[in-house]
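Supplementary Methods, section 5.1.

A reviewer requested that the exact input to the structure prediction be made available. We therefore reproduce it here, unchanged from the version used in the analyses.
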Amino acid sequence: MTLDVGARRRRTRDPVLTAITELGSATRADLSRVTGLSRSAVGECVAGLLSDGLIVETMTDEPSGGRGRPATVLRLSSRRGVLLGIDLGHAHVTAAAATSGGEVLAECSGELDVDHCPERALDLAAILAKRALRRSGHRLDEVMGIAAGIPGPLDMRTNVVSAPTILSDWVDLDPAAELEQRLGRAVLVGNDADMGAQGERAFGAARRFDDFLYIKASHGIGAGIVLGGQTYRGSTGIAGEIGHTHIPGASNWCRCGSRGCLETVVSISAVRERLAHVLSTSGSDMDVNLLPPLAELARNSSAARVLTDAGRTIGRVVADLVNCLNPAAIVLGGELGAGGTPFVGGVRESIDRYAQPASANTVQVTAGQLGARAELLGTIATAMRASTLIG
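The structure derived from this sequence is encoded cell-by-cell as follows.
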C-alpha cells in the first residue's frame, strides 16, 4: 500500500516547521540533524515551504561549515496573521489567540458546566475567542485558522457528537457548525485528548515521537493516540475512551451508565477526595478545595502513596495499549499529570508488570511538559495545520 502523498508531505513538513519554530532560525544541515530527515528530504521540504511563502531564507555572515560561501538561514515568514484555539473542558472554557508560529498573544478563560450546558458553552467559547482576538490586537479578517477541543468523542464522519453515554446533552450537536455560526469562520473540532497529544507533539514532551499515547487524566480519562505521526481516531472517532474501561472490583456508577469505570476510581475528583481523607488530621476529611496543588502534595509521603496507586491503576489499562500498539512513549497529562514522580512511577510500575517485556522495555513514560495547557496549545497546533502552515 502506498502512502498518501499529502500524509507523506505532512510527515516531512511537520518536524521541519516545528524545528524552525523552536530554533528561531536554522540551516538545512541543522534541520537534518534535529529532525533526523535526510538532506534530500529536508531540501525538498524547504523548497516547498519557500514556494508557499511559509518560510524565508537569508544569508549569514558566517561561511557554511566554517569555510567557503556564506551559509543561508531559514526563518518563519513574518506574514501577518493570527490563530485561534479553544479548549472546552468538563468545567471550563479557554480561548487563545496566537501568532502563526504558535506563540500565544492573549488568553481568556471562564468556568462553566460544559457537559450539561452545550449551548452556553459554545456561546462562551465564541465570546472568549473574540475577546482574546481583541486583546491580541488583531481582527477577525486576520484569522488564518481556528480549532477547538471538546471533552468527548466526535463522530469524524459527520462531525456530530453521537455517544449518548459520554456527553449526553451534546448528542446530535455539530460543534464545528455551531462555532462557525458564532464566529463566522470555519472551525476544526476534535476530542480534547487528541488535542493534548498534538500540543505535546508540537511544543512539549512528545516532540521526538511519531508513535505515542497521550493520557489526559483529569475529570475524565482519555487517550490521544498518535501512530506514524498521525492521530488515530478509529472508524468513527471514539478511539481512546479508556476512562470507560471496567476495573475489576470497582462498583461506583459512572456518568456513562455503567459501574466500575476507570474514571470513577482515578479521576482527579476521586483522587482529591482520597487525598483529603489521607491528609486529614482532625478526624474529618479536609475540604478538597483547600488541598495544595498536586505538585506540592507529591512531596508528602502519604499523598505520594495515593498518587502512586492512581498511577498503577491507570497504568494497568495503559499496559494493554502498550501490548497492542507498541508506542515509543506514554505522555501523562491532565491534572493528574502534575502528580510528578509518584504518579509517573505508578504508571511505569504497571506497564513493567503487565505489558510484554519487549514493548515495556522500550516505551518511555514521562509527564507532559505543558501541564493543563496541553489541550489549548494542541488546538493552536491544529489551527496551524488548518491554515496550511503545517500540512
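Residues 82-198+374-386 form a domain with the Nucleotidyltransferase; domain 5 fold (CATH 3.30.420.40). These observations are discussed further in the main text.
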